[in-house]
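Postdoc handover notes: sequence design on the structure in folder B. Input tokens:
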């Protein structure tokens, strides 16, 4: 009989104690569940022979957003620990209860990416977030947080980053994305916490939930390798940093007002004009109940793909610029100040 491979559990991520030039796989104990059984997150550390930064790559903070897991596995195959400069720390599944239940939220229905850095004394999710931050994420010099669209929606490959900061702008450009949304770091997000604590971080949104999408996975992997080349963790030439990504100042979702069967017409990354018809809500007899019109120029970052539409459903995620590059198209600028 084959000997079972036992994976060790640790109480903390102590990078100093790990041997150089090797791949290390272990669990880190965060909190305990209602059976008194530990919640442990899987951690993969590639510790290089040479000195260099600690790059953290996190996936599945939303438990059903899985493309990042495949990116981490593929990255692991690419990296030779004997040649690596610095340390690569990868967490393929950071929201373990959410992953087990195949859903976005933590076991107490809280979104972990809205409560960072958690609390040492607080709710179930607060404790878990607190330990994720203190035991793992606080050890990074840079952080890439891998996400996807949520259930029932599709995303382009896009980045959320503060591009006014040189370090996060560089991280964003290295990924060669279709779209960059220059959102400020929203409070409670992992990215927000990291940047506040001088760990430059961006969010990479890769396609859809609950799936492995190989072309987007390969594109994102290339962006991460490019990042590692830029910081001289691996050898090779940095590929052209993106100059043709659509950069948006902000984004919001356009909602339906009526319930029914919805058909959302534009494709991902399409340019949208103010006044353009973007979706039709039908009643169950095929009669038009609502025509949803875009109220400004922009680009499609994400869209709903579930035809069943309650009144007040998210329909289309529109990225836009505060100052439109083509003001001729827009009668008046009064609606750009919000
Ligand atoms: Zn997410």
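Designed sequence:
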């Amino acid at each position: 009989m084959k000997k079972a491979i036992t994976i060790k559990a640790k109480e903390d991520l102590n990078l100093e104690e790990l041997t150089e030039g090797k791949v290390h796989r272990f669990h880190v104990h965060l909190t305990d569940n209602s059976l008194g059984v530990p919640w442990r997150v899987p951690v993969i550390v590639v510790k290089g022979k040479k000195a260099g930064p600690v790059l953290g790559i996190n996936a599945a903070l939303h438990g059903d957003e899985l493309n990042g897991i495949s990116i981490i596995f593929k990255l692991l195959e690419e990296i030779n620990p004997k040649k690596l400069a610095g340390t690569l720390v990868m967490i393929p599944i950071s929201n373990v209860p959410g992953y087990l239940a195949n859903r976005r939220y933590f076991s107490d229905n809280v979104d972990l990416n809205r409560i960072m850095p958690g609390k040492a004394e607080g709710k179930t999710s607060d404790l878990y977030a607190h330990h994720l931050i203190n035991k793992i994420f606080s050890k990074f010099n840079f952080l890439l947080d891998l996400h996807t669209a949520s259930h029932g929606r599709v995303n382009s490959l896009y980045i959320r980053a503060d591009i006014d900061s040189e370090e996060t702008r560089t991280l964003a450009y290295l990924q060669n994305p279709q779209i960059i949304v220059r959102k400020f770091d929203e409070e409670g997000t992992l990215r927000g916490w990291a940047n506040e604590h001088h760990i430059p971080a961006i969010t990479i949104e890769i396609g859809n939930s609950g799936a492995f999408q190989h072309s987007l996975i390969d594109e994102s992997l290339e962006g991460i390798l490019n990042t590692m080349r830029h910081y001289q963790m691996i050898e090779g030439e940095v590929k052209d940093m993106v100059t043709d990504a659509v950069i948006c100042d902000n984004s919001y979702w356009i909602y339906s007002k009526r319930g029914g069967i919805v058909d959302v017409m534009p494709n991902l990354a399409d340019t949208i004009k103010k006044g353009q018809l973007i979706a039709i809500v039908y009643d169950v007899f095929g009669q038009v109940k609502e025509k949803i019109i875009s109220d400004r120029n922009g680009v499609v970052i994400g869209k709903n793909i579930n035809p069943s539409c309650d009144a007040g459903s998210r329909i289309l995620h529109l990225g836009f610029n505060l100052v439109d590059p083509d003001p001729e198209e827009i009668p008046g600028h009064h609606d750009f100040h919000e």
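Context for whoever picks this up: The pocket of zinc ion is lined by residues 62, 65, 147 (CB under 6 Å). Don't rerun without checking with the PI first.
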